[in-house]
């Protein structure tokens, strides 16, 4: 029923502008960091010497990175992580998407900066921040049609609810099932 009303309702540009201005918090884009990741995987059950070998490998990779070797190339060659095929690229990350210890490191790096080697139960990690997008508010033009559709759906629902209420008020309801009375015996 709402679909029928959706075709009949329209939203003026002024309504869209007003909604946008009064709901800016809905269009806030949080700080985002594009990060690349390289993992030298370990296992908690490994002997200490094998873990040390993995740490040395990670530290050598970090030295190579600090000597301007390409992160993407080294990640493809050495990383045991799932992003190996994409050269370590994790894409843009917002707070709350990674483990807290990683976030505290990543969000304090500037574009182009490398983390030190970070040890976890999974292995030794190296991160590089590739880009940083400050917190912003999406531009009105970018969300205008989305707001229009949302407001249209809201208006259509109101119209459908009002129509249903009118039908209920006009309806003559007759109950055809007699009330059940307890048997005295």
Give a written overview of the molecule.
It is a single chain. The protein is of the alpha+beta class. It has helices at residues 2-6, 13-22, 48-66, 71-78, 100-106, 140-170, and strands spanning 28-29, 32-41, 89-94, 118-120, 123-133, 136-137. The protein has a four-stranded antiparallel β-sheet with strand order 3-2-5-4. A two-stranded antiparallel ribbon has the order 1-6. The protein starts with a helix and ends in a 15-residue tail after the last helix.
Strand and helix map with partners:
Blueprint: H1 2-6, H2 13-22, E1 28-29, E2 32-41, H3 48-66, H4 71-78, E3 89-94, H5 100-106, E4 118-120, E5 123-133, E6 136-137, H6 140-170
Antiparallel strand pairs: 1-6, 2-3, 2-5, 4-5
Helix pairs in contact: 2-6
Number of strands: 6
The arrangement of helices and strands along the chain is HHEEHHEHEEEH
Helices, by number, come to 6
> How large is the share of residues in beta strands?
15-25%
Q: What is the average per-residue confidence, as pLDDT, rounded to a whole number?
A: 89
Globally, the shape reads elongated
Structural class: alpha+beta
Strands of the widest sheet, in order across it, are 3-2-5-4
What percentage of residues falls in helices of 4 or more residues?
A: 40-55%
Largest sheet at a glance? 4 strands, antiparallel
Low-confidence stretches: none
**How many whole angstroms does the radius of gyration measure?**
30 Å
| Terminal Cα span | 50 Å
């Amino acid at each position: 029923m709402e679909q029928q009303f959706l075709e009949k309702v329209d939203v003026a540009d002024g309504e869209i502008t007003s909604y946008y201005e009064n709901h800016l918090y809905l269009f806030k884009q949080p700080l985002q960091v594009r990060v690349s990741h390289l993992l030298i995987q370990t296992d908690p059950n490994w002997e200490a010497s094998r873990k040390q070998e993995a740490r040395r490998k990670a530290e050598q990779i970090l030295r190579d990175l600090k000597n301007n070797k390409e992160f993407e190339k080294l990640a493809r060659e050495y990383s045991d992580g799932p992003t190996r095929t994409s050269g370590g690229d994790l894409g843009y990350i917002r707070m709350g998407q990674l483990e807290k210890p990683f976030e505290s490191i990543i969000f304090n790096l500037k574009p182009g900066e490398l983390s030190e080697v970070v040890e976890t139960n999974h292995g030794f990690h190296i991160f590089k921040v590739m880009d940083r997008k400050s917190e912003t508010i999406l531009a009105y033009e970018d969300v205008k049609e989305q707001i229009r559709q949302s407001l249209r759906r809201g208006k259509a629902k109101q119209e459908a609810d009002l129509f249903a209420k009118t039908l209920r008020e006009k309806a003559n309801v007759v109950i055809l099932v007699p009330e059940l009375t307890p048997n005295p015996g």
